[in-house]
Structure formats: structure tokens, C-alpha cells
Input
Amino acid sequence: MRLLGLSSIAVVALLVSPAAHADQESDRLREALRSATAQARAAEDQRAAVQAKLTAAEQERDRLRKQNEGYRAQVKEAEQAYRQAVKDFNERIAERDDSLEKWKAAYGEAASVARTKDAERSKFEGEATNWKASAKACESKNVRLVKIADDVVKQYEAMDPMEKVISHDPVFGLKRVEHQNAAQDFRDKIIEQKAKP
Output
């Protein structure tokens, strides 16, 4: 019995031993399963977080693409506006240059006309001065001619009738030479007073 007791203990020990061993193995497997489940959950949580980040990054990328397209459209509009502004500016510069050239031509023409008119004015002023001087000279000579004519008339009136007959008489001609000399003197004085152009 004792042997039987020992054997049964050994059998029980053998039976318990694998059962205990199986329980340990089962515990270890359960622990590994729990750990694997926890790791799977953690991995799933990480995958969900990464997926959320990926979705957020894709949304941000789409938003930035739209914003970039908007900026490109704005840049394109700004370039077109700049080109148009440059074109308008160049057209205004060309118009200003044309106006300036026309103004310069008109100014040159006006200056030329002014110089011509100034030269004509100077010429006419010179002619007017000459005419005034000539008119004064003529007036002065006219005054002397009147004086000479007055002298001739006075001298003729101063002759008595007998002298007039004797001086004109071709036979006697006593005062004829005096009369001719006086007439020549008067003629010379009159010729001196002749106006010159």
C-alpha cells in the first residue's frame, strides 16, 4: 500500500505536474494573448492616430493647394495689371513726347515768326527814323527855300522900274551881268536845298 501510495503520488504528481505545467503554459499564453491584444489595440490606436494625421495632412495639403492656386491667380492678375499699367504708362509717355515735339515745333515756328517780325520792326523803325530825319531835313530846306524866294522877291521889288528896263534891255545891258550873277547865286542856293532821296 505504501507502494501504491507512492505510486499514486507519483502518478498524481505526474498528472499534476503536466497539468500544472499546462496551467503555467496556459497562463503564459493568456498573458501573451493579453499582451498581443494590448499591442494590437495600441497598434490600432496608433494606426487610427496616424490615419487621422494623414487625413488632416491631406486636408491641409488640399487647403494649401487651393490657397496656392488663389495666390497664383492673384499673381497672374497682378502681372496682367502691371503689364497693362506699363503699357498705359508707355502710351502716355509717347503721347507726351508727341505733344512735346508739337509744342517744340510750334514754339520754334513762333520764335521764327517773332524774329522775322522783330527784324521787320527794326527795319521799319530804321526806315521811320530815316523818314523823320528826311522830313526834318526837307522842312529845314523848305524854310530856306522860302527865305531864298523871299529874298528874290524883295530884291526884285527893290529895283525901280528904270533899273528893270535897263537891266533887261539888250542894247544897254548895264546891269545885266549883275542880274545874271544874282540869278545864278539864287539858282545855286535853290539847288542846294533840293531834297535827296
Observations:
- Confidence is low (pLDDT under 50) at residues 1-6.
- The chain is about 90% helix and 0% strand.
- Residues 36 and 42 are 10 Å apart (CA to CA).
